[in-house]
Amino acid sequence: MTSIPTNSGGAKGEYWETYKHQPHWRNNEDEFEAAKLGMWLFLATELLLFSGFFCAYFVLRMFYPEAFRGASQEYLNWKIGAINTAVLLISSWNVAVAVRAAQLGQKMILAFNVFFASLCGIAFLVIKLALEYYPKYQAGEIPGALFTFPGGHGEYLPSAYDPIFLSVYWVSTATHGFHVLIGVFLLWWIGWRALKGHFGPKHYTAVENVGLYWHVVDLIWIFLFPLLYLVP
Amino acid sequence: MRLLNTILVVLLIFTGLTVGASQIDLGESLNLWLAVAIATFKAVLVAAFFMHLLHDRAMNSLVLFYTALTIGLFFLFTLIDMDSRHMIDDVRSEAIKAPVIAEEARAAAIAAGTITPHGHEGEAAQGAEGEHADEPPAH
Q1: Beta-carbon separation of B79 and A59 below 8 A
Q2: Alpha-carbon distance A192 to B7, whole Å?
Q3: What pLDDT sits at residue B115?
Q4: Residue A11 dihedral angles phi and psi, to the nearest 5°
Q5: Backbone angles phi, psi at A133, to 5 degrees
């Protein structure tokens, strides 16, 4: 067991050592637990938001099984999706390690892992934009009425329902990507505060809650990836 | 730390598994259920260990549990509804399904020669072409 460092030198305490809860709480722990419960309630609404997209996916898949089968294989490359899944899983691990580092008062490990996780988030977005969204946009593989039936797709015969699959793909992944972008900014904020010595064993509410948010972003991708890219 | 490492490795292995499972054709619904089952297992691991619900106050798990329950009910009743309308009113259930814009766009693309239904000419392609060929005289 790693011992928790304490500031016994009499020097001016770090922010987390001297942190005092807001006056309407009994103690720091109550404040922390309430903030976390609030975060969980917010994350519940996030899951409900995405459940709408998943519901659309299941209903449309039920209506047009053949189109979904073909379009998923034709328009999406599962290798890109798999790389992105790995990137997000690793960043999730980084965030989990960062929370642990905060609990143990390891400032630099905390900051490093948070910044590394944000780099993974950026990598995810770059892969998505450069290898998926941009080529798709150029090929006219965009949702709804803007969809243009592409030529030069080899033996693939586009179905009239391809745009429907692409609509589900674009709306769900773009909303998810937007959440990743917000998460990257939140991780920078956490990393910056960590470097300033804001977080330690006695106070790491923000690390915990941003961590939970990042895990939910990862969790949603865990479902999006097989459903959109893989299921034949 | 060790626990977190193990969980990461398990998650990556299961990502590989879900890719592998998708390469085998088990039939439409079985592939779908398998993918959802693996994803759910991974999600449970993330929630239990990365989000440390396992070592947390039960209240937070309860929030997640009721969210999952709500989503389950949402899916269940929507799918039952959408899948059973044809039992009551065939015409309306078809009206829900038919994306007129998409059909028209596809027919136009075939007419313009953007899509060339070479090789295997599907029924849908011939149907769409037939419809389009019938249209001009009517105008």
Answers
A1: yes
A2: 28
A3: 65
A4: -70, 170
A5: -65, -45
Closest CA to B8 of B52, B46, B34, B43: B46
Q: Which residues contact A182 (CB under 8 A, 6 or more apart)?
A: none
- Closest-CA distance, B138 to chain A, in angstroms, reads 23
Q: For chain A, what is the mean pLDDT?
A: 89
Tell which residue, A53, A87, A45, A39, has the closest CA to residue A176.
Answer: A53
CATH class of A49-230: mainly alpha
Q: Which distant-in-sequence residues (6+ apart) come within 8 Å of A4 by Cβ?
A: A104, A105, A201
The pLDDT score that the predictor gives to residue B139 is: 35
Token pair listed for B133: 């060929």
Cα–Cα nearest to A85, from B4, B24, B46: B46
- Do A82 and B39 make contact, defined as CB atoms within 8 angstroms? no
Contact present, A85 and A222 (Cβ < 8 Å) = yes
Degrees, nearest 5: CA angle B56-B58-B62: 125
pLDDT of residue A3: 62
Residues of B in contact with A163 (CB under 8 A): 99, 102, 105
Using 50 as the pLDDT threshold, list the residues of chain A that sit under it.
10
- Spatial neighbors of B1 by CB under 8 A, at least 6 apart, are A97, A100
Q: Which residues of A fall within a CB distance of 8 Å from B8?
A: 89-90, 92-93
Residue with tokens 């001009």: B136
Q: What interface predicted TM-score (ipTM) does this complex get? A: 0.87
Residue B130: what pLDDT? 38
Low-confidence ranges of chain B (pLDDT < 70): 95, 98-102, 113-139
Q: How many CA atoms lie within 13 A of B13 on its CB side?
A: 8
pLDDT given at position A64: 85
Show which of residues 25-44 on chain B sit within 8 Å of chain A, judged by CB atoms: 25, 28, 31-32, 35-36, 38-39, 42-43
